[in-house]
Amino acid sequence: MRIHMPLGAGVLALLLGFSLPVIAQEDTDKVIATIGGKPVYQSELSLAMTDLDQQFDRLPDEQKTAAALSALLDIKLMAQQAENAGFGKGVEFERRLGFLKDRALHNDYFKSKVVDGVTEEAVRERYEKEVAATPPEKEIKARHILVDSEEQAKAVIEALDGGADFIELAKERSTGPSGPQGGDLGYFTRGRMVPEFEEAAFALDTDGYTKEPVKTQFGWHIIKVEDMRDRPPPAFEQVGEQIRRVLLQEQYLALIQEAREATTVEVTDPELRKLLDTMTPAEQN
User: Fold this and answer.
1) Structure pTM?
2) pLDDT tens digits, one per residue of 47-76
3) Which of 7, 16, 31, 272 makes an SS bond possible with 39, Cβ 3.0 to 4.6 Å?
4) Helix, strand or coil, per DSSP, at residue 46
């Protein structure tokens, strides 16, 4: 089963990584520290732990809390120093604050309208739909014996015709890396092997072997097919997270499209408008 991921994945990755600015504290918010007499709140520590989680994800919970608190105090301390030095004023700073506010609103809306709706049930439902819609793909389990010349290959075939064991011959004569394992190649589908090898292998019946040597860029092969089956779909545990991200992307793009249809967006700068016009809709997202 192949999960088709829409374009615009880079944008979604950024969305999931966006941090939120510090919000105003409620009266019930616990003061956990002070810096220069100014309170530091539990809610700010919670935000710091969420924002910095990827940096500390390998730490035990207690160390993660301590690391986030240390980082929060450093940020607060440096922020006070910056204010005392006259930073945080002017049009440029106000624009940055405005952008952070817009981004926070964007993220909250995205979480409410998209993330919260992509439940485990929705992911499993999409998985079952993908499995049902995917045509079965044949795969075979094969072994091969690789030798350096056509004469050597014909000698192997003659030995097999005389009743020799394929696995033992592979161990004795194959020059390929799978030789010590009796030439075992495991299961594979079309497109995994070089064309000459693939054509010969998929033409065989189960338990059949090639009666003529097969020449490829690697040498001369004698191939035996041991099993043929429909390739089983990947387990949900293998692709569940990938499907979840596909659903997030699809629903985010739909949300953006709905917003664009409801609101007029005009790029007034001619050069930027020209640049935007060269992009596909998916690339714009």
Assistant:
1) 0.60
2) 888 877 677 777 888 888 898 899 999 999
3) 31
4) helix
